[in-house]
């Protein structure tokens, strides 16, 4: 947990202090001993497919808890999240990998989700190996090791004012908070299914230097647990090694046809105003983008019908 403190303190301690100073003291967090039974927030990891050559887009979503009528307090007013996603979620085995450039994550391989774009900062704590011997972008020739997990922190505001009070934004009621562009490690067999799991205090074990899920509300209180119960439910995902067959470019809902609204979605993805995860069938080569030739393929399917599967 010490590493999370370092990440959060460097970027947001002033903002959180500004809110906490005007709020009532936070209740002391209790140990998490059981799963959430009611009034839960939720974090869900999506499924994806990819290979060592073609990336798959893993979408992670968050849903606030039900309104508890307490302003700025509770798991219905969550403003910051820190968690570790296991890749694999068992903490063992060959990891999924990110593209790296000069010892850092390549641009766009970790991006804010559509629900928080523009309002929140997404930090990957273990991107680099500076002053450490393992990370997501290691120098293996120097004996550094690749992590099989990614440590993520999400908080706002993205830009702090030069002076004056700071208003901490609350995450949307529900939606995509981060998208990860992942590939298979070299040599992993086709058809392998890699579990994707957000670790929490409910897990009996986790990788060294990984962190349990932690959420904070708008008053800068830790609301990960209610009493001894988790305040969050979890939905795991899976990454299947092998590029998926996309029989019909542009067919977002799988009904065997490409409609005008689906073409508009494709154009929005190409322009950068929508995520590839909103309609993966446009991304014919699995590179995480929609190019003009992929749009043309979808238009042809709209005019001529989808090819036979």
Overview of the molecule:
- The protein is built from three helices and 18 strands.
- The protein is globular, with a radius of gyration of 20 Å.
- It folds into two domains: 2-29 and 39-241, Immunoglobulin-like (Sandwich), CATH 2.60.40.680; 260-303, no CATH class.
- Strands 2, 4, 8, 11, 13, 14 and 18 form a seven-stranded mixed β-sheet that branches. The protein has a five-stranded mixed β-sheet with strand order 7-12-3-1-17, with no helix packed on it.
- Residues 1-22 have low confidence and may be disordered.
- With 309 residues, it is an alpha+beta fold.
- The chain has helices at residues 2-20, 260-271, 292-304, and strands at 41-45, 48-50, 56-63, 78-86, 100-101, 104-105, 110-112, 121-124, 134-135, 145-146, 149-155, 174-182, 193-198, 214-217, 225-226, 229-230, 232-235, 237-241.
- The termini are far apart.
- A hairpin with a 2-residue loop joins β5 (100-101) and β6.
């Amino acid at each position: 947990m010490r590493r999370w403190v370092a990440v959060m303190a460097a970027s947001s301690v002033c903002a959180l202090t500004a809110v906490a100073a005007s709020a009532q003291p936070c209740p002391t967090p209790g140990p998490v001993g059981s799963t959430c039974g009611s009034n839960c927030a939720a974090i869900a990891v999506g499924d994806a497919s990819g290979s060592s050559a073609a990336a798959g887009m893993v979408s992670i979503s968050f849903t606030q808890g039900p309104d508890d009528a307490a302003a700025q307090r509770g798991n219905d007013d969550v403003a910051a999240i820190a968690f570790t996603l296991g890749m694999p979620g068992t903490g063992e085995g060959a990891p999924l990998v990110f593209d790296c450039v000069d010892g850092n994550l390549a641009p766009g391989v970790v991006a804010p989700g559509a629900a928080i774009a523009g309002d929140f900062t997404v930090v990957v704590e273990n991107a680099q190996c500076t002053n450490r011997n393992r990370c997501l972008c290691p120098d293996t020739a120097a004996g550094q090791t690749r992590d099989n997990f990614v440590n993520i922190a999400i908080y706002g505001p993205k830009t702090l004012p030069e002076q004056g009070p700071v208003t901490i934004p609350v995450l949307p009621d529900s939606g995509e908070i981060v998208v990860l562009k992942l590939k298979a490690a070299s040599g992993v067999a086709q058809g392998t299914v890699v579990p994707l799991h957000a670790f929490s205090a409910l897990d009996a074990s986790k990788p060294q230097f990984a962190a349990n899920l932690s959420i904070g509300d708008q008053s800068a209180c830790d609301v990960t647990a209610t009493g001894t119960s988790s305040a969050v439910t979890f939905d795991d995902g899976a990454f299947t090694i092998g590029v998926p067959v996309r029989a019909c470019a542009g067919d977002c809902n799988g009904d065997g046809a490409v409609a005008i609204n689906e073409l508009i979605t494709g154009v929005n993805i190409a322009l950068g105003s929508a995520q590839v995860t909103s309609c993966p069938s446009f991304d014919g080569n699995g590179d995480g983008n929609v190019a003009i030739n992929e749009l043309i393929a979808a238009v042809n399917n709209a005019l001529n019908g989808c090819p036979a599967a």
